[in-house]
């Protein structure tokens, strides 16, 4: 059964909850990755490039805004999202034939 941080009375309980959250995050990242692949499939016949700077800026701003709203360090989470974006663009570039794999 899921516990809140305040309900955890031991490090073992904390670790169980962190592991649960890490697993949930990976599931969400996998879902996000599926959308990245589908985006490349849609971009190809539309003649769109993998890297769309206006969208990159929007996603980074959204990450920053969401981090701030959650009371998290916006610089840190924007940096994480910047890495996600770079990785996604490279994957799309390969799928679109913009680079050799």
Describe what you observe in this structure:
Pfam families: CM_2. Residues 5-96 form the Chorismate mutase domain. Keywords: Isomerase, Lyase, Pyruvate. By secondary structure, this protein is an all-alpha fold. Helices cover 75% and strands 0% of the residues. The protein has a single domain, classed as Up-down Bundle (Chorismate Mutase Domain, subunit A), CATH 1.20.59.10.
Say what the CATH topology is: Chorismate Mutase Domain, subunit A
Integer-rounded radius of gyration = 17 Å
Helix coverage percent? over 70%
- CATH superfamily heading: Chorismate mutase
- The overall pLDDT, averaged over residues, is 96
Q: What shape does the CA trace take?
A: elongated
Number of helices: 3
| Series of secondary-structure elements, N-terminal to C-terminal | HHH
Main sheet record: none
- Counting structural domains, the number is 1
Report the sheet-strand fraction. Answer: under 5%
**CATH class term:** Mainly Alpha
Give the second-level CATH assignment, the architecture. Answer: Up-down Bundle
Low-confidence stretches: none
Keywords:
101 residues; single chain; Chorismate Mutase Domain, subunit A
Present the secondary structure layout.
Blueprint: H1 11-46, H2 53-69, H3 74-96
Helix pairs in contact: 1-3, 2-3
In short:
The protein has a single domain (about 5-95), classed as Chorismate mutase (Chorismate Mutase Domain, subunit A, Up-down Bundle). The chain is about 75% helix and about 0% strand.
